[in-house]
Amino acid sequence: MNTPNATKSQLIVIGNGMVGHHLVEQLVEQGATEHYEITVFGEERHLAYDRVHLSEYFSGRDADSLALSTAEYYAEHGIALRLSEAVTAIDRDKSEVTTPQGRYAYDRLVLATGSYPFVPPIPGNDREGCLVYRTLEDLDAIRAMAETANTGVVVGGGLLGLEAANALRGLNLDTAVVEFAPRLMPMQVDSEGGELLREKIESLGVQVLTGRATQEIVDGEASRHRMVFQDDKVLETDLIVFSAGIRPRDDLARDCGLEIGERGGVVIDDRCLTNDPAILAVGEVALWNNSIFGLVAPGYQMAKAAAATLLATASGSQDGSFKGADMSTKLKLMGVDVGSIGDAHGDRTPGARMFRFLDPIKQQYRKLVVSSDGKRLVGAMLVGDNSYYDTLLQYYANRMDLPEDPAALILPSSEGAPTLGPDALPETAMICSCHNVTKGDICATLDAGAVDLGAVKGETKASTGCGGCAALLKSVVDHELEARGVEVDKSICEHFAHTRQELYDIVRVEGIKTFSELMEKHGSAESHRLGCDICKPAVASILASCFNEPITDAAHIPLQDTNDTFMANMQKNGTYSVVPRVPGGEITPDKLVVLGQVAQKYALYTKVTGGQRIDLFGARLEDLPAIWGELIEAGFETGHAYGKSLRTVKSCVGSTWCRYGVQDSVGMAIQLEHRYKGLRAPHKIKFGVSGCTRECAEAQSKDIGVIATENGWNLYVCGNGGMRPRHAELFATDLADEQLYRIIDRFLMFYIRTADRLQRTSVWRENLDGGLDYLKEVILEDSLGIGEELDRQMQTVIDAYECEWANAISDPEKLKRFRSFVNDARPDPDIIYTTERGQLRPA
Amino acid sequence: MSSAIAAKTMTQTWQTLCTRADLVPYSGIAAWVETPEGPAQAAIFYLPGYEQELYAIDHHDPFSHANVIARGIVGDIKGQLVVASPIYKQHFRLEDGQCLEDDSVALRTWKVSFKGDEVWIEA
Hints:
The complex is a heterodimer. Chain A is of the alpha/beta class. Chain A folds into 7 domains: 9-116 and 248-315, FAD/NAD(P)-binding domain, CATH 3.50.50.60; 119-242, FAD/NAD(P)-binding domain (3-Layer(bba) Sandwich); 326-420, 2-Layer Sandwich (Enolase-like, domain 1), CATH 3.30.390.30; 421-486, BFD-like [2Fe-2S]-binding domain (Arc Repressor Mutant, subunit A); 500-555, no CATH class; 561-643 and 811-843, Alpha-Beta Plaits (2-Layer Sandwich); 645-802, Sulfite Reductase Hemoprotein, domain 1 (2-Layer Sandwich). Chain A is built from 25 helices and 38 strands. In chain A, the strands form 11 sheets. A 5-stranded parallel β-sheet of chain A has the order 3-2-1-7-19. Chain A has a 5-stranded parallel β-sheet with strand order 9-16-10-11-12. In chain A, strands 21-22-25-24-23 form a 5-stranded antiparallel β-sheet, with helices on both faces. In chain A, a hairpin with a 5-residue loop joins strand 28 and strand 29. In chain A, helix 1 runs parallel beside helix 8 (296-315), helix 10 packs across helix 12 (470-483) and helix 13 packs across helix 15 (535-547). Chain B is mainly β. In chain B, strands 1-9-8-4-3-2 form a 6-stranded antiparallel β-sheet, with no helix packed on it. The chains are: A alpha/beta, B mainly beta. The A-B interface holds A 76, 457-458, 461, 464-467, 494-495, 526-533, 536-537, 554, 557-562, 565-566, 570, 572-574, 816-817, 819-824, 826, 828, 830-831 and B 17-18, 22, 24-27, 29-32, 37-38, 41, 44, 47, 50, 60-61, 64-68, 71-79, 81-82, 84, 86-91, 101. Chain B: It holds the Pfam family Rieske_2.
């Protein structure tokens, strides 16, 4: 379009698919725009989009949300993006490419033309209603055709074929899959696995025909088409989708005389160069070491290597080359787990030995392929349960020594009872599934010299993903260090040489009311005395447990996690969810209406939580005060869903309505919720109150479970749902209301006082020396003589309660904190929503 | 003042952001900043009484892709002043934006200072 910039080389990229776009990103990241004037041609009208999640287009995702980039991104980096403009020829002598719109000179050229779906040469394959499954346009065509169809057939039972079949099913067509091979997914699974897969997919209502070669497609009698198979059997259908594999789109390369592999594909070397050093190829059009890689990850690796190659010439340095890629995959197809690792069939490994496990009832199949000496895992196959995948992949990818009995890796675990403590966990136990870190990895890190939790985290990245394993990781590391004779430093962090319990006692005994005072008197002198994200929220919690001052007071605000700061739960896109208190789950119709109105007004996604409340998602930071203004006006108060505090008291309906209820469980739940609302603890606390032994409130899975008897209430303690469920234990029986409150008061305060940071009641109980008997002595018999003190402490907290949101919105100074930006009312433009099932959700 | 980045920052100018009263002591706020590349979101942290009282660092969290860094907890780890992302808790050095958990990741930073009671940023 413009005259070429004389100082920069011209770089042309043909193809704006996933890999072509990734190349652009790599070029931008590596600074190529300083050396190259880049032009990208895409024949589709869409910007590069996520083809891996293409089928979601049918389940409500639109083209925009599948897009991998924006026109602005290209413009911002000065890259010319020419969509709907297909390159028709490459002239290597003149170094230019031709499109219907013009000719463009290049210094370097990258082919990222990808592949096209292979349509078997069956007579009739071009009839109307015979389609492929590759682009958004293809999907639009399928959708349009499906409107007048009742039945659909997918030709090809591979990965994409099954995805296509699922899509047809989603379009309400009677669906069948026809596969030429004797089984589904012939590349990934063997006959046993294929059989299981067939059963599972048939149980979803999809007909599976294997070992069928279609001879021709002709007019049908009852439907639009009739497929005639080799054995003269026929199948009638209205719509046919071909998904019989891919072929590299190498025609441009062929026409200009580049070297092409025997079965197609532009031959490239480790630097992604073709036999013409001005031209590179990446992705599914490229043939490396005689292989085409039909997955996106290898394509991305090629893109990275290609960018390095392009910059090596420009800047004189070189790093990064393509060295092949692992084709292991883990998939969920139509709800069926399929995993394939390395040489899953074992036909590429001489002398390979196989272990197989088949459970026809649970419909699970697992296969291990082991090297001839039995020491290494060379491949694996999983159908029906991918939970083994991460561990197996570790053995494979890291060439780890297999256990003496490799079969143990695929046999179902026979542990009947839940394991107690880190000691009981096997070496293979996955501690951090974000980064695939097992207990064995952690032990190996410790054996290699790591001396504390921080070092283990740094070495393994464990607990740096979602963080859900932080507590488990810490207990494993502590346990293993102790087992190695290392005295474990129980300091809460580098700022305080004290445990949480010690800090709690210091705060209480010395009457310390702020973090800065605590830091001044007891903090480490070596630090900047600023604290960190470990000690600050812990101290904030201790101060709140002791004095219950508003957490939004200026002295406390820097201590809080974002949820406590803004009194809402941060979600993955930076917006918040709002959960008003609904004590005992009882709510008036008027209040229900208000919740709906507020959700409508602020476009919030609404969901009923597991704890009998209504969660309003997607609130922008700046909208929180207005939302809460309306909720408080309607009589709601803050639900503390954001805090390490009492969350909810779940109840059944009890004697209010139920014909079996023996006590008023709703009334008791409301009493308890109001009594302990706002109580801050080492971890969140949940209660349940059931009106009879049928236990409809599931009270025994809660920290505090209360179950009605003919004579009063039975109290259960230290139960837990979550990652490691634990049943609560019976603590006291047939209690009157006042007795019940008294015991719970003391129990909770003793927990708050003695538990570790972020320790649930269940874990606290498991680590309690003397066990339940000791706890009963302390709470029920007051063996330590602290009963009255605990009572007083609880009363202080109860008396100091005020609704945190009511406090915040009555204070203009506090409200200032709820601005997205201090200097502008512009909303954050990066918060983007899409719709799903009629509601907004993050795009 | 750093001459190492001078070449890239030639077109930078000082601009006013907000006042001291808008800041939250020992914590952060977010602000829009006009940069030569367009508007950017910056997280401004205020540490009254410290040798350097103001820091400006990218508000965008590269791990979650949400604009939330200003809402993280400020702290010091092994002598370095950091903010912890409120989403997945990675730590970023206030001084230069370096992520402590991942060498390959660093946030942008800007120079920021008081002029009287006003907060100014160079971008």
